[in-house]
Amino acid sequence: xxxxxxxxxxxxxxxxxxxxxxxxxxxxxxxxxxxxxxxxxxxxxxxxxxxxxxxxxxxxxxxxxxxxxxxxxxxxxxxxxxxxxxxxxxxxxxxxxxxxxxxxxxxxxxxxxxxxxxxxxxxxxxxxxxxxxxxxxxxxxxxxxxxxxxxxxxxxxxxxxxxxxxxxxxxxxxxxxxxxxxxxxxxxxxxxxxxxxxxxxxxxxxxxxxxxxxxxxxxxxxxxxxxxxxxxxxxxxxxxxxxxxxxxxxxxxxxxxxxxxxxxxxxxxxxxxxxx
Length: 276
Description:
There is one protein chain. The protein is an alpha+beta fold. About 35% of the residues lie in helices and about 25% in strands. It has nine helices and 13 strands. The chain has helices spanning about 5-15, 25-35, 80-90, 105-115, 140-145, 160-165, 170-185, 220-235, 250-260; strands at about 1-5, 40-45, 55-60, 70-75, 95-100, 120-130, 150, 185-190, 195-200, 210-215, 240-245, 260-265, 270-275. The strands form two sheets. Strands 1, 2, 3, 4, 5, 6, 11, 12 and 13 form a nine-stranded mixed sheet that branches. It has a four-stranded antiparallel sheet with strand order 7-8-9-10, with helices on one face. A hairpin with a 7-residue loop joins strand 2 and strand 3 (about 55-60). The two termini are about 25 Å apart.
C-alpha cells in the first residue's frame, strides 16, 4: 500500500479521468486537492504507478479533520484488492461515512464491517448525472433576464444555507457550508435587497449540490438558471460537471436531464454510515 504524495496525486487524477463517469467522485476529490483546495483526506493505492484500488480516508496528520465528518471514498477495478484495503487501510474504530460508491460493492462493505463487528446503515441511493459535452447544456430563457441578479454566496450567507440544507442545521453542517462557500464555486440569485433567494454550491468532491430555492420564490425557473450558470462556470474553469441525485427524487432527476445532463441507467451509487 502507498500513500500518494503531491506529484503522484497529479498522476492519479489523470488516470481516473480515463475511468469517467464511474470514477467521478474520487476524481473530484483529487481535482480539488490538486488545486490546493483544503481537504481532510489522504489518498492510498494498492500499488504504484499502476493501481487497482484508490482509497481516500481521514488524514491522521490533519488537525482540522476532527471538525468535519469522517469520510471514506474509493474507486476500484478489483473487488478482492478492495476487500483487503478496506480491512487493512480503514480505521473501523470510529464513525465514518462511505459515500458515492458503486452499489455493486455493497456486499463487500457489509462483509468487512461484520468482520470488524461494526454496525452500518444505508444513507441514500443515488443516480450519477453528468454533462459530457457543454454544447448539450440547455440555456433557459430566464438566464438573460436574471443576469443582473446572479451572484456568488459569501460568508454572511452560511447560516441560511445551513438551515435550509437537508443534511445541515447543526454545527458540523455550518462548518461544512462555510468551507464550501470559502473555497469552492457558488452561484445564487439575489432579491431586490441583495439577499439570496436561490443558490447552488459545489461539494468538496466538486459535484454540484445543495440546490435550493426559498419556497416563496419557486416556480420562476431559478433552478434552471443556477444549473446553467454554474455548469458553464465549472466547465470554463476546468472542473468536472456532474451531480448525484437521490433515486426517488424524480423532480430533480428530470430537471437535470432536461438541462442536458445524462446518466448510465445501469449504475447506482450509495451512501453508507458505519460505526454510528
